[in-house]
Amino acid sequence: xxxxxxxxxxxxxxxxxxxxxxxxxxxxxxxxxxxxxxxxxxxxxxxxxxxxxxxxxxxxxxxxxxxxxxxxxxxxxxxxxxxxxxxxxxxxxxxxxxxxxxxxxxxxxxxxxxxxxxxxxxxxxxxxxxxxxxxxxxxxxxxxxxxxxxxxxxxxxxxxxxxxxxxxxxxxxxxxxxxxxxxxxxxxxxxxxxxxxxxxxxxxxxxxxxxxxxxxxxxxxxxxxxxxxxxxxxxxxxxxxxxxxxxxxxxxxxxxxxxxxxxxxxxxxxxxxxxxxxxxxxxxxxxxxxxxxxxxxxxxxxxxxxxxxxxxxxxxxxxxxxxxxxxxxxxxxxxxxxxxxxxxxxxxxxxxxxxxxxxxxxxxxxxxxxxxxxxxxxxxxxxxxxxxxxxxxxxxxxxxxxxxxxxxxxxxxxxxxxxxxxxxxxxxxxxxxxxxxxxxxxxxxxxxxxxxxxxxxxxxxxxxxxxxxxxxxxxxxxxxxxxxxxxxxxxxxxxxxxxxxxxxxxxxxxxxxxxxxxxxxxxxxxxxxxxxxxxxxxxxxxxxxxxxxxxxxxxxxxxxxxxxxxxxx
Length: 569
Prior knowledge:
Its main location: cytoplasm. The chain is α/β, with parallel strands linked by helices. Helices cover about 40% and strands about 10% of the residues. The strands form four sheets. Strands 4-3-2-5-1-6-7-8 form an eight-stranded mixed sheet, sandwiched between helices. A six-stranded mixed sheet has the order 11-12-18-13-14-17, with helices on both faces. The protein has a two-stranded parallel sheet with strand order 9-10. Helix 6 packs across helix 7 (about 175-190).
C-alpha cells in the first residue's frame, strides 16, 4: 500500500510541477497512452531534472547558504538531517568503501584516473563528481558510465518523495541542489551495490556536504591554489586548512607536492586529526611495464594527478587484500616504485571530457578545457600552444585561431585573459553560459542562480579586458553598443572581438558553415547582421580553424552539447 501511495504521490508531484516549472525551459507535455518507452523515459527524466532545478533557488536553499556562511558547522548538521530524512544513516555510508578526494586543481582528473584503475581490477565502481557538462546524470557514474535516465528518474523520485513528505515536520526545508545530488548519489551507489565509491568534494572540504563521510578508506588532496575565496578564505593557508578537513582519524591520506605554506598546514591538520599524510612521488620515479607511461588525459599537469591516483588505488587495494580478498598486483611502495599492467592500462584508458579535450570536425579543430583558475589556465595555455602548434605543422594553408571564453562567479577573468594573450588569437569571442538563446527543452543546462543581464554584462567586461590587454594606450576604444536588434554585441572598433548571447550562436559564427554538426536542421540558426558577418573574412578564407574553448566548465559543457550530440542522448 505504501508503495502504491508513494508512486501516486510522486506522479501527482510531477503533474503539479511540470507545467509551471518546465515551461521555463520550453517544454510542452501531452499525456498519451501511445507513448513509446524511450519517449516516456526521456520525459520522466526531464521532469525529474526540472524539479531538481527548483532546488537551485528555493527559499530554504537560500537560507542554507546564509546560515552556512555565518556558521559553516551547521551545514554538516543539516546534511545529516537530510540524509536521515531520505532513509539513510551516516553509518550506512561506511558500506561504500569510499575514496574521498579534494583539491583546487586536478581533483576530478585524479578521481577519473582512480576510478579507471580500480575498474580494471574488476571492481564495480561508483563515482560522484561535479559539475556536469551536458546532463546532470553525468555526476553519478557506475563503472565509468553516467547512470541511465530511467535509473536516475527512479531514484530521484524515491529520494525527493521521502524528503518532500517530511518537509512540514522540518521547517519546510528541502536540501539545496548540490546537497540533494550528493544524497541521491549515496542512494544510487548503495542500491546498485558498488564495491567502492569515489567521492569528489564540491567546494573546500571541512564543511562540504560530502564530509559527512566518517570512515573513508583513503583520502587524497590534489594541487592547491586560490579559488572560491569568499567561502574558503583568501590565502593558501586558509584554503589548505579547509581542504585538510576531509582527513579522518587513522585513515591514510595522500597529497601531491604543494606550496610550502600549504604543506605546512596540511601536515598540522593531519597531526591534529590523527592520520598519516604521504606526499606522492613524481610519476617519472615509477618503473613500469609500459615505458613511458601513457596517460589518457593530455597535459603535463596531469602527471601529479596520475601519481596521486596510483597511491589512492594502492591504498584502497591494500586494505581490500588485508580484509581477505584475493591477492592483486598493485603499485609497490618501496625504494623502487613499480606500476603494474593493470594500472598502466587504467591510466592510458582514462577519459574525462572537457579537460584538455580535442575534437576535430573537418577543417575545424576544437580544443576544450574547463580551466577556471590562474594555475589551471597556465596549464591550459601550455597544452593549447603545444598541441595547436603540432596540428598547424600539418596544415596545407592558413590557420585562423579563435578564443571562445567565459568566466563566472568571483574569479579574476581579466587576469586569466592576460595569460591567454600569448596564444595569438585572430578572434576573441565571448558569450554567457547559455546553450541557446531560444528556450529549449534541455533542463540539464539551466542555471536559475544568475540573471541573464548579469551574465551578458560580465561578457562585456571580459571583452573590454581582452581589448585592454591587446591594445596600446592610443588604441583604446569607446564602449560597446548593441547594434539594432541583432543577436550579437560588437565593439564599435576592433573587429577581432565579439560578444554573442549564447554558445550556439558563437559556435555557428565561428564555424561559418564549415561544421556539418552545427548546420544540422535541428539547430536554430540565428540571424546575424551583414556588418557582423563581414568581420568573419579570416574564418571564411582559412584552410583550418582552431578554436580554444575555456574559462568555465559550464561553457565547455554547453559547447559539447552542440559539438558532441552523443552526450545528449
